[in-house]
Structure formats: C-alpha cells, structure tokens
C-alpha cells in the first residue's frame, strides 16, 4: 500500500483496478493503433490510382458476407471510407469482447476471489466499490482511445491521407465506444449473475444479439431499421473518417450512462458475494464424467472446448462463402498478388482464392493461439483458487493431472485446426478450386504457433505460475503486432523471428513447411516436459 492509498483510501480500489488492467489495455491499444495505421498503408498499396483500386473495393463492398461481418461500407474507394469500414468494425468488435470479459473479471471475478472484502472492511461502501471499479475500467478505455487517436494522427501525415484532428478524435471515440459500451454491459451483468462465468455469458449474449441485429440490418435492405436498435449499429453510423456524424455518439453516451447508474443502484442493494438473480440452493445431482480426474477434466472443459471448435469451423465456413468473389478481387490487386509470390506468375482466380484462404488461416492461427492462452489461464486459475488441492489430496499425481489438461488442450487445438479446413471447404462449395486435402493441411499447419505457445505456457506454469496468463497473452499480442508491422515497416530479421507466426508458411498460399511444424512441436514437447518437472517439484501457489 502506498502513501497515496492511505491519503485517499476511498479511491484505492480504482487505483487497484487500473494497475490490473493497464498492461492489457496498453497491449490492445498498441495493436489497435498498428491495425489502424496498417489499414491506411494497405489501402494505398492496393494501387497508386483511385481507378486501380476500384475493382478491388467494389468486390469487397458488394459482398454480403463482408457486409454482415464488418458493416455497410460507405465511400469505400477513399482512404477515409476504407479505414472507417475496416478498422472501426474490426476494432470495435474486438474492444467489445475484450471489454465485457475485462469488466466481469474486474467486478464479479475479483469479488468472488475475496479481494473486495479488504476494501469493504474499511470506509468503502458497496456502491462506491462498484464506482471505483468502473473508474478503473474507464482508464483502460482511455488508453485504447489514446493509442487509436495517435495512430490516426500519424497516418494523417502520409501523402494523400489528410485526416483532420476532429476526424481523428471522432474515429478514436468510435473505436473505443465498443469497449466502453460492453464494459458497462459486463459490469451490470456482474451485479445480476452469481458467478463470473454466468455474468460473462449474459454479457456475451447481449453482444451476440447486438451483432446479429447489425448484421441483418446491413445485408437485408428491408430490415435496415434494425441498425438503430443495435449498440454496434450506432458505432457503424458514426462514419468518422468518411462522412462524420457525431450525433450518433448521443445514444452511445445515453446507454453507457443508464448502465452505469443501474450498476451502481444494484451494487448498493445487494450483499457482498450475493447477486440480484440468486443461484439456486438445490439442484439435481449430475454425476456424469466424475469417475476419474481425467473425466472431470473433460467435464470442466467440454463447453469451452466445443465453443472454440465450433467457432473456428463455423467462422471459416462463413468466410469461405465469399471465397470466389474475394478471390477475384485479390487476383486483380497488385498488393494481394505480392502475398502470393510463391505461386506461379500471372494473377488468376485460383491464385486469388489461395491468397484469400491464406489470410483466413492466418486469422485461424491467431484464434487458436487465443484458445491456448485462455485454456492455460484457466489451468492456472484452478491452482490459484485452491481447486487443485482437492484432487492432489487424493490419489491424483501432479504429473498425471497436468499432462491430462495439456493433452486435452492439444487435442482441441488440432481438432479446431482440422475443423477450419473442413469448414472452409464446405462453405466455399467444395473448396472454390482448392481440394479438401489442401485445406485440411492448411488447418493443421495453422495449429503450429498454438502448439508452441502451449509448450511455452506449460513451462511458465511450472516455473513462474503467476506469469502464465500474462506471458501467453503477451506472446499472442507480440506475434500479432509483428505480423502487422512486418507488412508496413522493414524490421530486422531477428526481431521478426521472435514472432510465433513468422516461421510457419501461410498455407494454402504455399505448401506447408512440415519441417518448421515439426520443430515447433519438438520445442513444445521439450518445454512442456521441463515445465511438468518444475510443476512436480514446486509448492502450489494461490493468488
């Protein structure tokens, strides 16, 4: 505790929340800034002339799948319109998901872990504690906003861009609005639900409905009015860099205000660890998958594993539905042709499809790394919360428990990778010129970075358990940042080599390099084995 904590104890929880969230906010803010700058550079690299870019952007803007995912494009042939459509849509969605998970963890998660008892034992009331947490989460949003604003201002200095300061301010606000709205959604859900998992599920359901309303509104002209009922639709209507409409910030600000007031009101009416919608005191016994610790591991992870596997397969299937049209656009783009430099010279439809599929499988790599990072964080959480003690007090060995959990994560990763290949093949209508075998290989190739991350995570769990989640997410963010930076800046090779995404080939643009995949798997095995030995020898470490 610092001198400042003693001087203003009523705001200690706010400072505590800021310290716990600022690192992640900084990483995500840097990623958003680089994505914004890369969007500007990528648009300019399509062609030096506006006419040369028209074929590419017309194909993108007319595609129903992209409209559903990213929103209705507006003035897509201009740099402002393209960046608004591409960056605002992607970054606001990422910010929304990150925000709802962060909010439920910083409120219901911290309360369930018993940390709020220390603050509420003093002069802090339950309502003030909730206000403290919201202020701390607001600081995280401010970090995202600052990074995005700076990126827009820097990008504006490039020739032919010329964003105004006002447009950059509005753009940063629109991007941060997704996180801000769903932080308040998550905070309110934490007051309603008895556990962090249920609060996150409720907030995710609100996000899903909001996204669905916006997607339907953008692909069905007769249902366009639905965009006005979706918080994500309000963000889309801002059009910060193409046709600024700041009046759409009003419903966003109104929703945030209402949710904050509702959160504070409910927080003051309930007891610590209680919820507005209480859990049931009794339930029917469900004893399936409780016969051994291995079956228990399957039971504890089956929902999450199934969700990630289906998300990977269904996501690739949705992207694949516009593989042919996107392939034509990529084939006509000089910048996209450079991605497929390993193919035969001369752009054609199959070259464009391969390039598009390669980008999809790059996203799959990132998604699988995200699953591994979250799974390892859950494994560490099981130890930190003391749940592992119950197993180890019986006949379960440490090595057996850790190897079971590790192999389950590995199995889900491989199944999800294969599922993306099958999903892309099915969604594109028998591969759009690519064979099922090629796509299955591409899906398995996409698992290589996640497998190595799994080995690094298990090693960290054995040696520095409290750093398991930070190390995994930092490696994910670092690899993502370097992958974006490598496309716009000329970095030293040794810097790029630190990215887990650098060495595997981008299949099916080129044939998978199984030697690299084998090296990744061997390193993962050695690291996991070393981590397992360290885990057996150290003491259990709670929070």
State the shape: globular
Instruction: Please provide the ordered H/E string of secondary-structure elements.
Output: HHHHHHHHHHHHHHHHHHHHHH
User: Which structural class do the helices and strands define?
Assistant: mainly alpha
Number of strands: 0
Number of spatially distinct domains: 2
Number of helices: 22
Calculate Rg over CA atoms.
Answer: 24 Å
Q: How many angstroms separate the termini? A: 17 Å
Strand content: under 5%
The assembly state of the depicted protein chains is single chain
Mean pLDDT: 81
Q: Describe the main β-sheet briefly.
A: none
In terms of per-residue confidence, which ranges show pLDDT below 50 for 5 or more consecutive residues?
339-347
Helicity level? over 70%
Task: List its traits.
543 residues; mainly alpha; 2 domains
Topology:
Blueprint (H helix, E strand, L loop, with lengths): L2 H5 L4 H35 L3 H12 L2 H7 L8 H34 L3 H5 L5 H31 L8 H28 L3 H24 L11 H8 L10 H21 L23 H28 L2 H9 L2 H6 L9 H36 L2 H6 L5 H30 L8 H10 L2 H16 L4 H18 L7 H4 L17 H24 L6
Helix pairs in contact: 2-5, 2-7, 2-20, 3-13, 4-9, 5-7, 5-8, 5-9, 7-8, 7-11, 8-9, 8-10, 8-11, 10-11, 12-15, 12-17, 13-15, 15-17, 15-19, 15-20, 17-18, 17-19, 17-22, 19-20, 19-22
Quick gist of this model?
This protein has 543 residues and is mainly α. The protein is built from 22 helices and no strands.
Please, could you describe this protein's structure?
The protein has 543 residues and is mainly α. The protein has 2 domains: 269 residues, no CATH class; 213 residues. It contains 22 helices and no strands. The radius of gyration is 24 Å and the shape is globular. About 2% of the residues have low confidence.
